[in-house]
Amino acid sequence: MQSAATTTESADAPPASAPGRLMSLDVFRGATIAAMILVNDAGDGPISYGPLRHSLWNGWTPTDLVFPFFVFIVGVAMAFSFSSRSKRGASRGRLILHVLWRGVVLFALGLFINGFPDHYQPATLRIYGVLQRIALCYVLTAVLALWTGRRTQIGIAAACLMGYWIVMRYVPVPGYGVPTHDIPLLDPNRNMVAWLDRKLLWGHLYERTRDPEGLLSTVPAVATCVLGLLTGAWLRSYRSLATKFAGMVACGILLVTAGKIWNIWFPINKKLWTSSYVLFTAGLALLCLALCYWVLDIRRWRGRWTQPFLVFGMNAIAAYVLSEALAGFLDSMKAHLADGRILNWHELIYERVFWPLGNPRNTSLMYALVYVALCWAVMWVLYRRRIFLKV
User: Fold this and answer.
1) Can you say whether the dihedral through the CA atoms of 16, 20, 23, 27 is positive or negative?
2) Residue 220 within a domain
């Protein structure tokens, strides 16, 4: 990573003086990263409040919205970034080389996080991950952005969603049979996504028999990013601010409704990134972005209250990498207690500092909030020095 003022490209925001900057996108990005750190770093995940835990399988919680929101934001920002770079004379060839470089670096950062600080055994290192999925979605959506038009992009997004549904619903899973006939639809271990991941990367999966960022489920995730790209193109259009806002609200409601209806036949499921999940979460992301757009770019209600979000939003990838690396470090350090127990530093800090303070759910939340504040403090130092890290 290098120190530089960034554009609105994928994950990081531009400096405040950059032309064409959407503060609503910066704030939405920052809020999403803050939420991502919050839900990933509870004091004791199993006893934290329900909204701060992922749904066990079908269904959703607020936590299940965070990752697709960020993938959606990657697409929105891409529309602004490519337009800006093209106006400065960058050719499509130069843009795609930059895209490929960023994709490789993001994927490598994901591998670094998965193994940090001392789990880099080739036989067991997890290959998939959050940054890896972002990298794949970013590169594939960028190709569509540079070489196709809006109608083609809509068609490909629809094909990704329909094709994924057909595969998951009708294609027999080797060794198990046809979903809904021989096995339940979206059975946790007996589905095409889990089967393919076991075939390709056995021993490298997050949940041993499957991975929530698996290869096949990246196909509908690309549709999430493309929907963000289409939103970015809408925001870059020459329509009035009110028309843009109304369009986002209308499309958001339409997508949420479509996702809920499709949920009847193809359940909303974050770990499989189902097609209904894509529509539902993209619709909610559109509504949240529309709200930010109305407050910050139409009404222009700005002030110091936006700064906490901008601190994260302007160094989003750096904030995420810091949070994951710090968590890995705390989990790797061991403390030998007088009673014979061995706790990692995460467990030790939570037990000694937070657990005595009261209700376990409250103390788990307090730990998470303090963790977010610590990461924010580091990003604030960069923000104050106008250091914006980009790949």
Assistant:
1) negative
2) yes
User: Which tens digit of pLDDT belongs to each residue from 310-329?
Assistant: 999 999 999 999 999 999 99
Task: List all residues 6 or more positions away from 96 whose beta carbon is below 8 Å from its beta carbon.
Answer: 142, 143, 146
* Tens-place pLDDT, residues 184-219: 999 999 999 999 999 999 888 888 888 999 999 999
**Sign of torsion over alpha carbons 108, 112, 114, 119:** positive
Q: Which two tokens stand for residue 112?
A: 């670094």
Does pLDDT of 68 surpass 60?
Answer: yes
pTM, two decimal places: 0.91
Query: Long-range contacts made by residues 236-245, C-beta under 8 angstroms, separation at least 24?
Result: 236/79, 236/80, 236/83, 241/297, 241/298, 242/298, 244/293, 245/290, 245/293, 245/294, 245/298
Asked, for residue 243, whether it belongs to a domain, the answer is yes
Question: Which ranges of 41-129 does DSSP label H, i.e. alpha helix?
Answer: 63-87, 92-115
Q: Give the type of residue at 229.
A: L
Q: Is 132 a member of any domain?
A: yes
**Pairing of β 342-344 and β 389-390:** unpaired
Overall average pLDDT of the 224-235 stretch? 97
Give residue for tokens 């963000």.
228
